[in-house]
């Protein structure tokens, strides 16, 4: 079956696997974004951005991270900001989703190979209904981003000219829905001026959570009126997301209540809004309404944990994902109770799911620890700050304690690779570098060893 995407015919010529096509596609988008951001008219000053800084910005935008080495609102011209916005949209939805959009608009047929790539991109277990899912992804994204942009523009129209408010509304709606964390308020301030603003807090949090729960869950929720039932995946994602948001808000509220650099100066309502906002944004949006570097170390470490867990599968966010974390917790509970099976919502989970969750978690820990160790040598900054920045890069969060703008070139390259790995997924990268092997035709005899 011939592919209807002309650009994929070359990939077929080289016989690349779906994971390799995804890796190559994201790398190509980053390279194009880097070259565009290096153009003199992409900068407000008219001077070309250094290659390493343009590469870091393009990687951060495409991987929907939000870490920046130059301020987005003040350094880049309108052209540069639009390039970043497009990179965020393509990176958040995936370049294959965007290619499918153009194919659908041109009424071209989606080939079997293209469906396989879409299946890999959306982290699906089968190709069944994949094109229908992509259509829903595009519609949901457009509707949610449009509503968010309008609401934010109406709020900011009171603070700035209408044209600027509309532009700010569109930029931040796309950025927050795609969990990117880029903002235009200048001087690395993010949304700190709106810490107690109920409209901005509520709209941005809804955008972040909508993009973070995943399109599969979103479709399931919309179909709930007809089916009156939710899939196991949706139940796990929604319950764990709610539990993490509530737990995070309580912990941040308690730890930062008297901190004069964060919640201290705010009224009680502002403290509540900020606590919930800072609980939502590590998973994995990257916006902030208070100074992250001013938080207590206990809170900063807790945010590292939230960032590490991240969003949910099939979403615009990163991290090891809520379902992986749930499986790990379920395995621990089952072991403590002396049970062999992990049961969630009266469903037993296959052992291979547990092995996959364990693999993802250990690979993520290994990457974060390794990068943090190297950065501790190259940057010479406090370890908690380095660990925070590394986890933020891997989980594509974008929260920063202020280290990223001061990174050495070696540190920037290392974080670029970390963001790239975090966005694509460690298993996808592993399969791209070394294709997945088939099941062996024989088994070794069972051995015994002491554990614990």
What general form does the structure show? Answer: globular
Strand content: under 5%
Q: Can you list the strand order of the major beta sheet? A: 1-2
**Could you give a short account of the major beta sheet?**
2 strands, antiparallel
Provide an overview of this structure.
The chain is mostly helical and 452 residues long. It is built from 19 helices and 2 strands. The chain has helices spanning 6-13, 18-37, 51-62, 72-75, 78-93, 95-105, 112-121, 130-156, 162-177, 198-212, 215-227, 232-256, 268-280, 297-309, 322-336, 351-379, 383-394, 409-424, 426-433; strands at 342-344, 347-349. A two-stranded antiparallel ribbon has the order 1-2. Strand 1 and strand 2 form a beta hairpin.
Tell me the layout of helices and strands:
Elements: H1 6-13, H2 18-37, H3 51-62, H4 72-75, H5 78-93, H6 95-105, H7 112-121, H8 130-156, H9 162-177, H10 198-212, H11 215-227, H12 232-256, H13 268-280, H14 297-309, H15 322-336, E1 342-344, E2 347-349, H16 351-379, H17 383-394, H18 409-424, H19 426-433
Antiparallel strand pairs: 1-2
Brief summary of the model shown:
The protein has 19 helices and two strands. The chain has helices spanning 6-13, 18-37, 51-62, 72-75, 78-93, 95-105, 112-121, 130-156, 162-177, 198-212, 215-227, 232-256, 268-280, 297-309, 322-336, 351-379, 383-394, 409-424, 426-433, and strands at residues 342-344, 347-349.
